[in-house]
C-alpha cells in the first residue's frame, strides 16, 4: 500500500512544482509548449531507448503481453463506439486522443515504481510497456501525422511515418540494442541516459503549468466526456484485464500484475501528444488529472482483494 502512495506522491510533487512556477510567473504558456516539445523530440526518445535496451525480452513475451494488448483493444473499441454516437463530429486526432486517454496506461514513470513497490519486480510491467512503445505508439503516431497533414490514413504512408517519428525511433533503437546485445560506449550511453532523465520531469512540469494557466476543468457535456473516459480507464479496463487474464490461465501474482497495471491512470505522454498535435489538449489534461486521483483507491482496493482472496 505504501508503494502505491509513494509512486503517486512523487508525481504530485513534480506537478505541483510546475503549478507553482506558473503561479509565480516564472514559467508561462510558451514554457509549457517548449517543455512538451523537448519531451517529445529529445527526452522521451532517449528515455525509451534506455528503457527498452534494459527490458528483459524473455519476461515480456508471455500471456501478460497478450492480456495487455487485448485489454487495450477492447477499451479503445468501446470508447470509439460510444464516441461515434455521443461525441460525434470530432476529428481523427480528437478520437485518437480520446481513445489513448481511455486505454494508454502510465506504465513508465508511475508503473515502474508501483511494479517495484507493489508487485515486487519491475519486470511485471515490462509487457505493457513493450506493447505500448512498440505496437500502440508507432501506429498512433502515424495516424496523428496523417491527421496533422489533413490526409486520410493510408497503410503504406502510415507504415513509413512510423519510422520517422522520434518516439518510435527511440523505442525501436532500444529494442534492437537489446536483441543484438549491443554495448554502447559510455561516451554515447551516458548522454542518452541524462537526456532521458529529463523526459518525465519535463512532461510533469508542463502538465502542472497547464493546470495553472489553462482553462478551468470541463463542465457540462465536456465533463461528461472526461468522466466517461476516466470510468473506462480506471474501472472497466482492470475488469477487462481480469477477465482476459483468467481466460488465458493467469493466476496469482501474474494475474495481480496485469490487473494492477490496467488500473494505472492515463499516461502523461498523452498530454504531450495532445500539445504536439494540437488536439484535445484540455481533454487530455483533465483525464490525466482525474484518473490519477481516481486510480489510487482502485489500485489499493485491488491490492486488498488479491491479498485477501488470492494470498498475493
What's the pLDDT, averaged over the residues? 85
> In the CATH hierarchy, what is the class?
Mainly Alpha
> What overall geometry do the principal axes of the alpha carbons give?
globular
Compute the separation of the termini in Å.
Answer: 13 Å
Main beta sheet: strand number and arrangement?
Answer: none
CATH topology: Na+/H+ antiporter like fold
Overall description:
The chain is mainly α. It has a single domain, classed as Up-down Bundle (Na+/H+ antiporter like fold). 79% of the residues lie in helices and 0% in strands. It is built from 15 helices and no strands. The protein has helices at 2-23, 29-54, 57-60, 63-86, 92-103, 111-119, 126-148, 155-162, 166-179, 186-197, 199-213, 221-247, 252-262, 269-277, 281-309. Helix 2 runs antiparallel to helix 11 (199-213), helix 4 (63-86) packs parallel to helix 13 and helix 12 runs parallel beside helix 15 (281-309). It is globular and about 50 Å long. The model has no long low-confidence stretch (mean pLDDT 85).
What's the short story on this structure?
The chain has one domain: Na+/H+ antiporter like fold (Up-down Bundle). It has helices at 2-23, 29-54, 57-60, 63-86, 92-103, 111-119, 126-148, 155-162, 166-179, 186-197, 199-213, 221-247, 252-262, 269-277, 281-309.
Which helices and strands, and how do they pair?
Elements: H1 2-23, H2 29-54, H3 57-60, H4 63-86, H5 92-103, H6 111-119, H7 126-148, H8 155-162, H9 166-179, H10 186-197, H11 199-213, H12 221-247, H13 252-262, H14 269-277, H15 281-309
Amino acid at each position: 500500500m505504501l508503494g502505491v502512495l509513494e509512486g503517486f506522491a512523487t508525481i504530485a510533487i513534480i506537478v505541483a512544482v510546475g503549478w507553482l512556477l506558473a503561479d509565480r510567473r516564472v514559467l508561462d504558456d510558451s514554457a509549457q509548449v517548449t517543455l512538451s516539445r523537448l519531451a517529445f523530440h529529445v527526452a522521451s526518445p532517449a528515455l525509451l531507448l534506455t528503457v527498452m535496451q534494459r527490458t528483459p525480452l524473455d519476461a515480456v513475451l508471455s500471456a501478460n503481453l497478450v492480456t495487455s494488448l487485448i485489454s487495450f483493444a477492447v477499451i479503445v473499441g468501446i470508447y470509439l463506439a460510444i464516441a461515434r454516437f455521443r461525441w460525434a463530429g470530432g476529428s481523427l486526432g480528437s478520437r485518437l486522443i480520446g481513445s489513448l486517454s481511455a486505454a494508454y496506461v502510465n506504465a513508465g514513470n508511475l508503473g515502474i515504481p508501483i511494479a517495484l513497490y507493489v508487485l515486487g519486480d519491475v519486470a511485471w510491467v515490462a509487457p505493457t510497456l513493450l506493447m505500448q512503445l512498440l505496437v500502440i505508439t508507432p501506429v498512433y503516431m502515424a495516424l496523428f501525422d496523417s491527421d496533422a497533414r489533413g490526409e486520410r490514413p493510408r497503410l503504406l504512408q502510415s507504415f513509413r511515418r512510423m519510422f520517422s517519428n522520434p518516439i518510435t525511433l527511440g523505442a525501436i533503437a532500444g529494442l534492437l540494442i537489446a536483441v543484438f546485445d549491443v554495448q554502447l560506449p559510455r561516451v554515447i550511453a551516458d548522454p542518452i541516459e541524462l537526456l532521458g532523465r529529463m523526459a518525465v520531469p519535463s512532461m510533469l512540469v508542463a502538465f502542472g503549468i497547464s493546470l495553472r494557466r489553462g482553462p478551468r476543468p470541463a463542465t457540462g457535456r465536456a465533463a461528461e466526456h472526461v468522466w466517461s473516459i476516466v470510468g473506462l480507464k480506471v474501472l472497466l479496463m482492470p475488469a477487462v484485464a481480469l477477465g482476459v487474464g483468467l481466460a488465458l490461465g493467469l493466476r496469482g501474482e501474474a494475474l495481480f500484475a496485469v490487473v494492477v497495471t490496467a488500473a494505472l491512470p492515463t499516461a502523461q505522454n498523452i498530454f504531450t501528444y495532445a500539445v504536439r498535435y494540437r488536439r484535445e489538449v484540455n481533454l487530455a489534461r483533465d483525464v490525466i488529472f482525474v484518473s490519477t486521483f481516481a486510480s489510487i483507491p482502485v489500485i489499493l482496493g485491488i491490492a486488498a482483494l488479491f491479498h485477501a482472496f488470492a494470498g498475493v
